[in-house]
């Protein structure tokens, strides 16, 4: 029995069939017209959107508002609860760098961060010595959308590069700020990826430019005080399948150009003693070879999967001869222990690894080779490694949390092994960890693979199948969803929900093989793992099929679309945020922003009939059929360059056409934002409150 009553007639998208043929196979798309022909220009100026498309999206928003009208008070309550768990005037613990320590803080009611610095040894809480470098709220005034890319100060601490996006399209504008006066210089650099790498003298910086298809295809060198049109082209990546970024080192010796797709890497380096030098190739790209570099004084440390090191190893090379033939092993490959990232300091090498599904930080003395690990005893937890802003240091910084334990920030002395607690996340409205239970259980997949599932619920929640459950999943790009503290989900858990995270294949939760077993030709495992998690939670009576609301976003939205087609009867409702659901059409169009770089993740259906068939077999939009679908909420962003707005719009149109059930199919399009949704911290809470209100309503708990 649907909980949605007396709804108005849902919008009906007109059909305008478009047929294409690939590999001799003809397909007809009735809703292709929802894609704006001028999408590149529209991302920069949303006002030029085709009026017919705008009218349809606005009609969908009106229908969605009508369906959710009776949750307005609930949304306000949820928002108030979530806001009440945030310390509104929170401040970071500043990170020491040279004569200063840098950090961010918020003011009560403020949506955006403020960047500050204090003297290096100044008292952290002393506001009289705090110099505000950038006020995010002030910069955002009068803008419906505003996101700051950060503030990167020069080595001499005189200037900072800061970037902003005011449309949600992820085309960032860079400006240069005089940190002494707080004023911006005349420099304006447009259409960038969001940041820059300073030259050591603070007189110039390097940055990436996005082309019309939103690809970071060029790196330029900008001299402060000159026009962008005079900037020197440093490197152009001609292969549209590769991403590119530029960065510096802690000791200001090199500029690193990182070129990569999802399975292949290439680095080029520029010595800062000769900024006009041609970027020097380190190891040429070879399909399947991944590596990343960090400074090490007279050596580079290289994290790589070379020579069959599936879970990665760390090598070193001389700075003067960094080519692959000169790499020497430092930390060997240990199958089943995945090295995720690495950092180097004057006397220590540091890396973050995942072993038996849990993270560890490992410290190695560069002189003696002695190693020790930082680990914790909880059943499931999250570690964050932020390291240090200085090379010649004994102290690094990391964070720890679990589903029940608020985040704790530590400084750690790598030599003495002393751990200093700097800050514990405050929950102003109160939080008692003893009221909750967190568990790590394993759901058997159809092929026998144990799928980890992290659970959070109140101790008094009945485990007899009656509890509603929000089951979250992602499962792509090797991204691991951490089992960290999340104050927002407490609004569900405190209402009797079981909150569950399915650590499905496609992520690296159980090593690199776990990722490989959920991509390309094996992508179906991702979807089967998620359904297996639902089966397990039902069988073990943590919840039941009639009480499970599934949630995922972006590539996790593809997961939502796939499980809606494969097992709709096992879910009471589905929330799909910016869902990548029109997979086949997108992967067949190499002009779209992320298509060529995505082929190593999904396969190339243009060149390969095999991958055409594989993707066609699971692509959510292409597999919608006449069946009763559960209640579905899809969310999109008009200027989203990653998952374009027309993907959820087309999917909803086809779902609504085909469903034989009575549950509504809803679409909410944020007309002022892109992939990340609303940019302000409280605006974002309003979006989460809306999603949770949908889950609570669908579960019959409103």
TrEMBL record:
It comes from Sinorhizobium alkalisoli. Keywords: Hydrolase, Protease, Serine protease. Gene3D superfamilies: alpha/beta hydrolase, Prolyl oligopeptidase, N-terminal domain. The lineage of its organism: Bacteria, Pseudomonadati, Pseudomonadota, Alphaproteobacteria, Hyphomicrobiales. PANTHER family: PROLYL ENDOPEPTIDASE-LIKE, PROTEASE FAMILY S9A OLIGOPEPTIDASE. Residues 12-424 form the Peptidase S9A N-terminal domain. Residues 485-701 form the Peptidase S9 prolyl oligopeptidase catalytic domain. It holds the Pfam family Peptidase_S9_N. GO terms for molecular function: serine-type endopeptidase activity. PROSITE patterns: PRO_ENDOPEP_SER. This is Peptidase S9. Belongs to the peptidase S9A family. GO terms for biological process: proteolysis.
